[in-house]
Write the structure tokens for this entry.
Amino acid sequence: MTIFLIALIIAFLCHLLPGRGKAEACFVVVAGRDASSTGRVLVGHNEDNRGELIMRHHYVKPREGKETLLSFEEGSAPVPAVWPALGFFWTETLRPAPGEPFGDSFVNERGVAVVSNTCCKSREDAPDLTDGGIGWGLRRIVAERAHSARDAVRIASDLVLTHGYRGSGRSYAFADAREAWIFQAVNGKHFAAARVPDDHVLVNPNHYSIRNMRLGSPDEFLASPGLIEYAIKRGWYVPARPGHYSDFDFAEAYQHPDYVMAPINEARHSFGLAIAAGVKIDLSARGARPPFSVRPLEPLSIKGVRDTLSCHCERPDDFNFDGPDGSGEWRTCPHDGGGILPDENRRDAYTRICNGSNRESLIADLHENSDDTVIWSCFGNPCILPMTPFHLGARAIPEHFAGHGPSELTQETEELTRLHFSATSEDVKASECEAWRLSRKLVGWCDEDYSRRIAAIADKTADLRRKIAESEEEEMDGKLEPGRARTSEMFLLKASEQAGLFVEAMRDLIGEV
Ligand SMILES: [Zn+2]
């Protein structure tokens, strides 16, 4: 058998493996409360995925369940239940079975946000897993139980230490209005966690980013027991001075060497810091790595987060990307792959932050009073689609954004969870919400002739953005009567009006295109 044939067979077998290409990228931006223009923590996230899938929103009400054990994806460990469970907003990546174990974001009724990015791959090749370990269940259980970002770290730590983490490597952002933590899990029972300093901005594409850790400062850093000793034992870390661990670098020790500053991450990390924080990091030196977080030149606004999530990394001189020409015209669609490294030895395609695999872009403006928390989102590239706001206080999803199909038969949480891992292609298709269908159609149309069409869309969506902004300001001006108790019905009415504005504008746009 020729080498070519063997390679073809291996490629085909890999294609059949569950989990192939899933939750393949993603990008996160976090601003600490003193680094944000709102004075509260801001979280931005691009969900990057390909393949047959839809995104849809749910609001799961707080509940008292009967089960004693919680089950998630096939092969994962059952986890003892704790009741009652908090209510939460859930943005779901629904795929045909076996489902998506590493997508999905949450913001719970206490105003705790959970988003994640893959950090594949870690160096661990002999993971310690109990009964298959925990995967999707980690984010879901944090959403059901965490009363603060720090509480989320404690819950995730307990889960990883008890069951072991199933994925190769992943970075979670847990945030509330006051503080944000990054929790980086390694396949098996190791993790590192670091608090984002209040006056710092963090961006992260898809690699471990926690570096030096002061493990005697539990308000700043936390780690699994034996994290450093295990790295020494495996030969992943050699202290410069035996017995002195001040030069321990988690990312350096636990990231697989083939994935250290991989092209998929390099441009996004560097441009992300430049846009979000106004800080240019020189990564040209051999072995240069971006910092965990930086102090921004200016506080980061919600618009600044959106601009970061929409970034196309447009300086071809730095990364040899195709960019707009002198007249601002794009010769190619910026969402089609990336550029090629000038270095002939590393001719790998880069990825832009706003790219062809964006399936949702989301910004959580977290408030101390969690009813006031606003989740801005769009189902695809944020450079094309306007984001619509959803106030957590609505405690139900407006009609145009809620899934239909099988989940409509029963909105029981357990049914939704079962469907998440057992859907057929027909179930997925039938579960599309109108906002998803319209958004994907518009993105597809725009990408066919990006340069010409983005301008036409921008003109038309400017009006929608203005109407939505006005609708948000109305609320600030007291239209929701802050002197009076604001009910979830009032918030839902607001969300429905805004969803209606979005759908109406999209229908008009698509009718015209
Ligand atoms: Zn874009």
